[in-house]
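User: I'm putting together a teaching handout on how sequence relates to shape, and I'd like one worked example. Could you take Glutamate/tyrosine decarboxylase-like PLP-dependent enzyme from Plantactinospora soyae, show the sequence you're using, and then write out its predicted structure as tokens right after it?

Assistant: Happy to. First the sequence, then the structure tokens directly below it.
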Amino acid sequence: MQRNLRGTSRSATDVPADLFARTAELAAQWLRSLDRRPVAASADLDELRYRLGGPLPVGPADPLMVVEDLARAAEPGLVAIPSGRYFGFVIGGGLPAAVAADWLTSVWDQCPGFYACGPAASVVEEVTGGWLAALLGLPVDASFAFVTGCQTAHLTCLATARHHVLRAVDWNVEELGLSGAPSIRVVVGARRHVSVDRALRFLGIGRVSLRVLPVDGSGRMEVSRLRDELATAGPPTIVCAQAGEVNTGAFDDLDDIADAVAGTGAWLHVDGAYGLWTAASPALRHLVRGVERADSWAFDAHKWLNVPYDSGLAFCAHPDSHRAAMTATAEYLVQGGPGQPRDAMDWTPAFSRRARGFAVYAALRSLGREGVAELLERSCAHARRFAAGLATVPGCEVLNEVVINQVLFRFDDDRSTDAVLRRVIDSGEAWLSGTTLDGRRAIRLSVTNWQTSDSDITRALDAFRTAAAELLGRGPSSTENDRKGPFLT
């Protein structure tokens, strides 16, 4: 029994009978609205602060009223990310089975930090980790962790790498810390994702330790320079490669990089945030040839697998090092037991966390191997069609080879590029993000949502054709150019 603020006792059976039914109805209404609603939010910052703000209430309120008021107040500030016409930031939607499983995850409220606290959550992660290794061609004995996203996956993998390369020179970083430790050399490409640097910073490895190698025009690491770097005797070394550059979608030559690293004692980490999923497609897996030869892999499920936020994975080929870098124990914890259950806190930076395995399990069960491959290949086909359509829009230049699901393009100049993008977003027909490439403005489209259809691509292309026709030739007005939105970097 539980007491509310007014002193009356309540139990779970006192929850209003229609609360969850009404919540499901609100959720269904939102999903049904996606095809006809603007993709961008309609409310500005001041309006949202007004709608959602105010002083903290003094007393309790009816839960059903709270949920309905929240849905009503938040609605104009919601971006239609689950829509098939959301093409920003390599963000997927939510597969129906994954969303439903995520609802159950909240209701079940399990803590999968260790087996005793959530047996089913622990086992579903164990099973799902094995499925993912098989699907992506990773070593069957690789250890893994369910984490918040690729940022924390990098942190997990690179902490393991730090442990491993320092142990090789007889330094126990968990015992001795970094003060007085041998320096670590980290070799990266010039177009790596910023989350790699951020994870290294969290681990006490600063920018001075980076050896930044040049890349080609698409962002692929120049492997000949990597060989030169590794041929020079140096401190314990971590090499970070990339499967899917964030703007162009380009892939480092992972097999060639693995050849360069072989025999040097360096640890090879792969940032596969979304690109690693191509290993699940017979038509695309050549892009990650050699990926299984790495020592660790970081990637997201909330991107191309289309499970709800947040959901990332870290895999390591050296379980002993992984566990040594992550594990913790205390007298009050109930760890291990008959049958050797898997205690997830041995593999992640977190004690308490969400049971993310349920949604990933449901996504994989609902798609199967063939469904995952079809989702990937369909997304890439949509991206190629979009790029082909853009090539017919006056003043538009496609900047990248469309390797997978990323299309990078610009218009005549920076002002035109930003103005056309803004006009498309304001139309409500699509949402894309802007970027800067080689000092010039560009627009980045990512087809990552399971719902994206031919009709969605047609609507987005028509929006760009209309915006270009309206704006090019007379140029964007100064008022338009001065407006700043969240899509500008």
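A couple of points you could highlight for students: The chain is about 40% helix and 10% strand. The longest helix spans residues 357-390.
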